[in-house]
Amino acid sequence: MPGLLRGVARTAVVAGTATAVSNRVSRRQAGRWAQQEAAQPVAAPPPPPPAPAPAPAADDMTAKIDQLKQLSTLKDQGVLTEEEFAEQKRRLLG
């Protein structure tokens, strides 16, 4: 029976030590990642897309609809802000 208790106690010590070391490594690694993220410069937002080119007269309405769909897709994806979308739409329809 004493041999069994000694084995259980040894296992508990080894498991506890492994857990403590693993937690410490995780905390240090998270700290390093946080420092790296803080040190990286913030990327500038992408420039707004150029104004759409004038479409041919025959397909003018179809081209405008297609361009509006593209602008809407860009806005939904977060590439364009609401203000940029409104400005491009005003240029296209105005």
Question: Can you give a write-up of this model?
Answer:
The protein has helices spanning 2-39, 60-76, 82-93. The chain is built from 3 helices and no strands. The longest helix is centred in the first third of the chain and has 38 residues, at 2-39. The mean pLDDT is 80. With 94 residues, the protein is an all-alpha fold.
Write down how many β-strands occur, each being a DSSP E stretch of 2 or more residues. 0
Question: How would you sum up the major sheet?
Answer: none
Distance between the termini: 91 Å
Shape: rod-shaped
Rg result: 30 Å
Q: What is the helical fraction, as a range of percent? A: over 70%
User: How large is the count of helical segments?
Assistant: 3
- Broad structural category: mainly alpha
Low-confidence stretches: none
> How much is the average pLDDT?
80
Question: Into which percentage range does the β-strand content fall?
Answer: under 5%
Topology pattern, helix = H, strand = E: HHH
Feature tags:
single chain, mainly alpha, 94 residues, rod-shaped
